[in-house]
Structure formats: structure tokens, C-alpha cells
Amino acid sequence: EDQVTQSPEALRLQEGESSSLNCSYTVSGLRGLFWYRQDPGKGPEFLFTLYSAGEEKEKERLKATLTKKESFLHITAPKPEDSATYLCAVQAGNTGKLIFGQGTTLQVKP
Amino acid sequence: GAGVSQSPSNKVTEKGKDVELRCDPISGHTALYWYRQRLGQGLEFLIYFQGNSAPDKSGLPSDRFSAERTGESVSTLTIQRTQQEDSAVYLCASSLGGTGIRSGYTFGSGTRLTVV
Q1: What's the average model confidence in pLDDT over A19-40?
Q2: Mean pLDDT over each residue of chain B, to the nearest integer
Q3: Would you say residue A88 has pLDDT above 90?
Q4: Partner B contacted by A43 (CB < 8 A)
Q5: Could you give the percent of chain B with pLDDT greater than 70?
Q6: Which stretches does DSSP call E strand in chain B?
Q7: How far does B62 lie from chain A, in Å, by closest CA?
Q8: How far apart are CA B45 and CA B35, in angstroms?
Q9: Which of A44, A89, A95 lies closest to B48 in CB terms?
């Protein structure tokens, strides 16, 4: 069964304290791994798509990496505005359907 | 429109009543998806539309749930005889194509459904 597990469930950082979020997955025929950011009361906002092991993508203070079993979202020198829930999802099959993890809620304190 | 629009943003209904949730996707997006997000949980896939047809409705939890899409645009998710376990945020998303979603979906802000 296709499955996505994110850890930790919650993470509290001081401003400037770098860290990583983990997304472990099992899927038959990975067609893409996606990272989204979700703010309270809003829909998820697309961040990155990764397709193959070894691939990396960067956006401002965020960098996503991919191996055959997991993905990491590295946050470098975070700011309070990076506080949000970060969702990982995998696409399996041809329909565009995504399987989401439970998310990691990040709080960055000034 | 510029983004995916969902209405209403909030809906409180009595147990046993029917509800309709509406989604207006981004113009030109042929693929449309419905997801459900229960409090503190991840997103659960409900149904996928490509144009006006639904090739994947495997996530609909029971026959009380149905959805349709017309004119390759607006979609309506209908829940009949609502139950308390239906309380959740219902999210709609659209993309240019079902198989090629390199730039991800664009989500709406969701409809928060509360069944009392």
C-alpha cells in the first residue's frame, strides 16, 4: 500500500536555528514527490516537485532533497514567517492523485 | 479567475441534511480534484475529474458522497444525509493536466463543514 510518513509532527525552532523535516514514503512507481506549505485557514501552497533520487530544489531558505526512500526539507536560518504546516505528498499512477503525509507543524520563534 | 475559488467558506448543517459545496477552478485547468482534511490529519483524496468525466472516484467514502463537473469548469461536491464524521475542511484543487502536474496543484482555501 502506498504510504507517506512525516516526522516530526511538530517542530519548534528559534529564529536562525536550521533544521530538517523528514518525509518517508513507500510507493509503487513514484511519479513525483511534492512539498506544500499550509498556513492556518488556507489551502496548501505548492513549493517543490522532485522526480528522481539525488535531485535537489531550492527556494529562499528552503531546500528539498530526494532519495529512493525519503525526502528532506532543509530550512536554513528560519524566520518567524516560515512558521506553517509543511506537507509532503507522492504521486502514484496516472491520475494525478496525491497521497499526503500528516504534515509537520513548524513554529519559529523570534 | 486568478485562483481556485470555493464556496461557501464555512457551512454549519444539521445531521441528516444534504449539503452542496462548490469549486471554481482556474480557467483552462482541465484537471480538478477534491480532498478532505479532518482536524489534525493529512489530506484524503476523494475524486479526480479530467474534463467533465471522473476517471478516479476511489476516495469517495460512501454512496452519500457524489460529485459532478460541468462545462469543464465548476464542480459540485454533494453530501447527502450528513453525519458528524463528515465534519472536515473540503479542499478543491486544479491543474493543467491530470498526468503532468510538474508545477503541482493550485488549491482553494476550502469549505469548513461542521455537522451538528
Answers
A1: 94
A2: 92
A3: yes
A4: yes
A5: 94
A6: 5-7, 10-13, 19-24, 31-37, 43-50, 53-56, 65-69, 75-79, 88-95, 106-107, 111-115
A7: 19
A8: 5
A9: A95
For A42-67, write each residue's pLDDT tens digit: 999 999 999 999 999 999 999 999 99
- Secondary structure of A48-105 in the HEC alphabet? EEECCCCCEEEECCEEEEECCCEEEEEECCCCHHHCEEEEEEEEECCCCCEEECCCEE
Q: What angle do CA A49, A55, A58 make, to 5 degrees?
A: 65
Cβ distance A49 to B104 less than 8 Å, yes or no, reads yes
The CA radius of gyration of chain A, in Å to the nearest whole number, is 13
Cα B115 from Cα B13, distance rounded (Å): 5
Q: Residue B101: what pLDDT?
A: 65
Q: Find the Cα–Cα–Cα–Cα dihedral B47, A35, A83, A106, rounded to 10°.
A: 90
Closest of A95, A45, A50, A93 to residue A70, by C-alpha: A50
- Exposed, middle or buried, A11 (CB in 10 Å: 0-12/13-18/19+)? middle
Read off the amino acid at residue B69: R
Q: In 3D, which of A24, A27, A30, A42 has the Cα closest to residue A85? A: A42
Average pLDDT over residues B46-72: 93
Cα–Cα distance measured from residue A56 to residue B77, given in angstroms and rounded to the nearest whole number = 37
Chain B residues with beta carbon closer than 8 angstroms to that of A43:
4, 91, 93, 107-110
Over 80: is that where the pLDDT of A94 sits? no
